[in-house]
Amino acid sequence: MYQIDPAFLRTSHAVGDLALSHVRLHDDARYPWLVLIPRVTAARELEDLSRTDLATLTDEILLVGRAVRTLGTPVDKLNVGALGNVTPQLHVHVVGRRQGDPAWPGPVWGHSDAEPYSDAALLKALTRAAATLGL
Amino acid sequence: MYQIDPAFLRTSHAVGDLALSHVRLHDDARYPWLVLIPRVTAARELEDLSRTDLATLTDEILLVGRAVRTLGTPVDKLNVGALGNVTPQLHVHVVGRRQGDPAWPGPVWGHSDAEPYSDAALLKALTRAAATLGL
C-alpha cells in the first residue's frame, strides 16, 4: 500500500492530491518549491511507473510548474529534478529559480539550511498553490 | 533553426540523435552521465515542448537511463534533472549515482571539477551508450 516517507512530512506541507501525485510545498520560504510524489507503491525510479502514469506525471509536472510561478516574484528558470539519493521514494522537485537567489546558479538541493515559512506566508503559499492546481 | 549551445561542446561528447533529442556523454569519468538536448528551436522549459514531444522526451529519458546503467558499475539511483540555470537551452541530465561517489548524496551539478575520460575509456563509453540507444 502506498505510504509517504516520513522524511517528507518533516520538510514540507501537504497541498493536496492530483490524479497521480500527492503535492507538497517544500518548507523553504527562499524558493517557490513544490514536490510531486506519485502515489504508486514502491516506486523509486521513473521507469517504475506505467506508461499511463508517466504521461500523467508529465502533465502534473507542467501544472505544478504553473503553480510554482504563482508563489512569488517572477521565476527566471524552473528546475525540475528527480533525485532521491537521500529519500528514495519516487518524487519530483519543481523549483522556481531567480538570478541571485541563495543557491544561484547552482542546484538548491543540499545547498544550505531551509528557512521555514512564517505561519501567514505558509497559509498564503498553500492557498495559491492549491488554487492553481484546482484543489 | 535548432542550434546546440557551444557550452555543451566544451563539456561533453556527441553520442548521436534519437527521434527528438541529441544525446551527449558528459565528460566526467566519475559518473555515468548522459544529457538529452531536444532538437527544438528556442526551447528552455519543458512547457515549451508540444505534448507529442514531451511524450517522446519521456520515452527517451527512460531509454537513456538504461544506457547510463551500462556505462559502469551498478547504479544505486538515477538522478534526472532539467535545470538550465547556467545553460538555458532545454536539456535533461540523466546521471547514475552510486553510494560513496564524490558528490553522494548531494547533487552532481556544481559539486566539483569534472575528471575527463581517457581516450580509451571515452571510446568505450560512447560505444556502449550508442549500442544501448540503438545508434
Structure description:
The structure is a homodimer of 135-residue chains. The first copy, chain A, has 135 residues and is an alpha+beta fold. The first copy, chain A, is 30% helix and 22% strand. Chain A is built from 3 helices and 5 strands. Chain A has helices at residues 6-11, 51-69, 119-133; strands at 12-17, 21-26, 33-38, 77-82, 92-97. Chain A has a 5-stranded antiparallel β-sheet. In chain A, strand 1 and strand 2 (21-26) form a beta hairpin. In chain A, helix 2 packs across helix 3. The longest helix of chain A is centred in the middle third of the chain and has 19 residues, at 51-69. The relative contact order of chain A is 0.23. The model of chain A has no long low-confidence stretch (mean pLDDT 97). Chain A binds chain B through residues 44-47, 54-55, 58, 61-62, 65-66, 76-86, 88, 97, 104-107, 109-110, and chain B through 44-47, 54-55, 58, 61-62, 65-66, 77-86, 88, 97, 104-107, 109-110. Strand 4 (77-82) of chain A pairs antiparallel with strand 4 (77-82) of chain B.
Summarize the structure.
The first copy, chain A, has 135 residues and is an alpha+beta fold. Chain A has helices spanning 6-11, 51-69, 119-133; strands at 12-17, 21-26, 33-38, 77-82, 92-97.
Distance between the termini of chain A: 24 Å
Give the tally of β-strands of chain A: 5
Q: State the shape of chain A.
A: globular
If strands are numbered along the chain, what order do they take across the biggest sheet of chain A? 1-2-3-5-4
Which structural class do the helices and strands of chain A define?
alpha+beta
Distinct helical segment count of chain A: 3
Written as H for each helix and E for each strand, in order along the chain, the element string of chain A is: HEEEHEEH
Largest sheet of chain A: 5 strands, antiparallel
Percentage of residues in DSSP E strands of chain A: 15-25%
What percentage of residues of chain A falls in helices of 4 or more residues?
A: 25-40%
If interface size is counted as residues with C-beta under 8 Å from the partner's C-beta, which chains form the largest one? A-B, 30 and 29 residues
